[in-house]
Amino acid sequence: MRHATGCWLRPSSAAWSGFGWHTDPADALVIGDLVQASFSSVMAFSEPGDAILLQLPSYPPFMRAIEDTGRRLIPNLMRDSGTHWVLDLDSYEAAPDPRLRMLIFCHPQNPTGRAFSRAELEAVADFVIRHGLVVVSDEIHADIVYPGNKHIPLASLHPEIAERTITITSATKSFNIPALRCAVMHFGGPALKDRFERRIPSRLLGSPGVTGVDATVAAWDDGQPWLNEVLAQLRANRDWLAATLAAELPGVTMRLPEATYLAWLDCRTLELPCPAGQFFLDQARVGLNFGETFGADYAGFARLNFATPAPILREIVARMGEAVQRR
Fold first, then answer.
1. Longest Cα separation, the chain
2. How far apart are CA 199 and CA 216, in angstroms?
3. Based on C-alpha coordinates, what's the Rg of the chain?
4. CB 67: neighbour CB atoms within 10 A?
5. What is the mean pLDDT of residues 139-158?
6. Strand, coil or helix: what is 61?
7. Beta-strand pair 134-138/100-106
8. What are the DSSP E strand ranges found in 3-70?
């Protein structure tokens, strides 16, 4: 079997050489989608009024999972080191919250494109254990990692962090099958899964359809040659985008994504008259994801999805450049 997570849909355990991670299908649940997994995990392992830590900028549904369920979002701002975005867990220690219960951790990170190193993940594990937290580790982009980087499942570090970790993943990003609705929650041990199931009745989660399960198994078992071709195109798009932005839109900064097909664009030095996403929508007719949806302080940013044919990507950047020149 090519992919470790694929074994979660089968009756036997396996290990994927790329992850080096052994999993037991008995510790997994197959559900419809990962937003559902994040909401249900928050409800299972915290109470209304409890605090949940989340790195910002962040995939917007994670903020909704915290706020819409009556929990309190504790923002943990990532820092731009000048070469890439980095975690800053130490900043939390200046004002710890006595009701902190969970960490929602996106790895690889959306929208910054980080593939965290083992040392960074060890720091996350130490933080989680020291504060007695449960962590939801969203690893949906694990298959989209560029050469020179490696995805390391958080729960694979050691048993102590595994027993506190719910890993959530799906084939939907890598193989572009979100409409088929199939995802996996993996609990780092039976006790964690038991706690979840005591709080969240199975009928609240529903189940994926046969088509989604079959497509996911097919993708993870047999789709790697196709994915290799896609990754080559994504890497070419990423590298072209980085070089072209630097040359033609010097007021826009992009730290080279190590994973995902997403570019987090810092447009603040352009001093635009409105949020960056709105400006490029109105003036360039380019629909980027608005930065402020990833955190209130990010109106000067926008997220660009470069998983598109090269001619379209070239037109996107050309329109953006023309809009900046006209302003």
1. 60
2. 27
3. 20
4. 13
5. 96
6. helix
7. parallel
8. 14-16, 21-23, 28-31, 51-56
**Model confidence pLDDT, tens digit, residues 83-127:** 999 999 999 999 999 999 999 999 999 999 999 999 999 999 999
| pLDDT tens per residue across span 22-38 | 888 899 999 998 999 99
pLDDT of residue 24: 86
CB 263 within 8 A of CB 293: no
| CB of 251 closer than 8 Å to CB of 294 | no
Which residue's structure tokens are 């447009």?
267
Q: What pLDDT, in 10s, does the model give residues 283-318?
A: 999 999 999 999 999 999 999 999 999 999 999 999
Q: What is the pTM of this model?
A: 0.93
Measure the CA–CA gap between 242 and 192, rounded to whole angstroms. 42
Distance in angstroms (rounded) separating the CA atoms of residues 87 and 196 = 28
Contact call for residues 97 and 127 (beta carbons, < 8 A): no
Q: Which residues contact 303 (CB under 8 A, 6 or more apart)?
A: 111, 262, 263, 264, 265, 288, 289, 291, 294
Burial readout 283-321 (b: 16 or more C-beta within 10 A, e: otherwise): bbebebbbbbbbbeebbbbbbbbbbbeeeebeebbeebb
Please name the amino acid found at residue 217.
V
Please check whether residue 266 is in contact with residue 301, taking contact to mean a CB–CB distance below 8 angstroms: yes
Q: How confident is the model at residue 18 (pLDDT cuts 50, 70, 90)?
A: low
Tens-digit pLDDT profile for residues 176-211: 998 999 999 999 999 999 999 999 998 888 788 899
User: Residue 102 in contact with residue 133, Cβ under 8 Å?
Assistant: yes
Token pair, residue 170, equals: 């799906």
